[in-house]
Design goal:
By secondary structure, the protein is mainly α. Helix content is about 70%, strand content about 0%. It is built from seven helices and two strands, in the order ββααααααα. α1 runs antiparallel to α2 and α2 packs antiparallel against α3.
């Protein structure tokens, strides 16, 4: 439906003049008329602004770390004619910078974040151990604990993504993952201290899993529905 540009009444598209005021209505090809957007396209400038701020902070921290590492190497060499204490400090600082890189959101994939932080941790622990002259605790203790923690983290995230209904399942599986991780760490610590007793380890494991199992059973069958809904709203489950 067209409108008269003079009096504004509706007219047929094929009318050449207005039936009310007899004003000449020009024929306009609608394909040639530019469609004007009434509302601007919605855009949130905050993420881009936040990213620029984080980039500046990370660049500043990186330069500060470079200066600090170089200065400590120089002071250590001038005092001892060798790199002694500065190796421990600098490898810790560089590892912290690597973890800061992941914390600033430069890597968005969860699996890559877990693997990256695990590799940084392994390099840090390997360096701290080998700087003492021999690998005493890295292979029997640090390596299996870090690898196990990474495997449990990746498995937990994969399981959560595969769930069709999450809710309280996220919390339940989190407690299970923490219990399994505690058992894993406890086993290798006892083994490193040459105190591995299978029966004792099984008893400790059972006592670690028992509270988690009781809590999950209570949440599933004993907790009132109104409390479940309140907790779900509170934590966005």
């Amino acid at each position: 439906m067209a409108y008269c540009p003079k009096c504004g009444i509706k007219v047929e598209r094929d009318n050449r003049s207005c039936p009310l005021c007899n004003f000449h209505i020009p024929k306009v090809n609608e394909a040639d008329v530019a469609v004007e957007r009434k509302f601007p396209k919605a855009a949130n400038p905050y993420p881009a602004h936040l990213r620029r701020v984080l980039n500046r902070i990370f660049v500043f921290v990186t330069l500060l770390v470079f200066v600090a590492v170089s200065l400590m190497f120089y002071i250590d060499y001038e005092l001892n004619q060798d790199f002694t204490w500065s190796r421990y400090i600098n490898i810790s600082i560089l590892a912290g910078l690597g973890i800061l890189y992941f914390s600033f959101g430069y890597v968005q994939n969860y699996y890559k974040v877990i693997i990256g932080i695990s590799l940084i941790s392994l390099v840090l622990l390997f360096g701290l151990d080998i700087f003492s002259g021999s690998l005493d605790w890295f292979i029997p203790l640090a390596l299996p604990i870090v690898v196990g923690t990474s495997a449990i983290g990746v498995s937990y995230w994969s399981l959560i993504r595969a769930l069709s209904v999450r809710g309280f399942n996220v919390i339940g599986f989190f407690f299970i993952a923490v219990a399994i991780l505690s058992m894993w760490i406890n086993f290798f610590i006892n083994r490193y201290q040459h105190e591995t007793d299978l029966l004792n380890w099984l008893i400790v494991t059972a006592f670690q899993l028992l509270p988690v199992a009781l809590i999950m059973i209570y949440v599933k069958f004993g907790m009132p529905e109104r409390i479940k809904q309140k907790i779900a709203r509170k934590f966005h489950l």
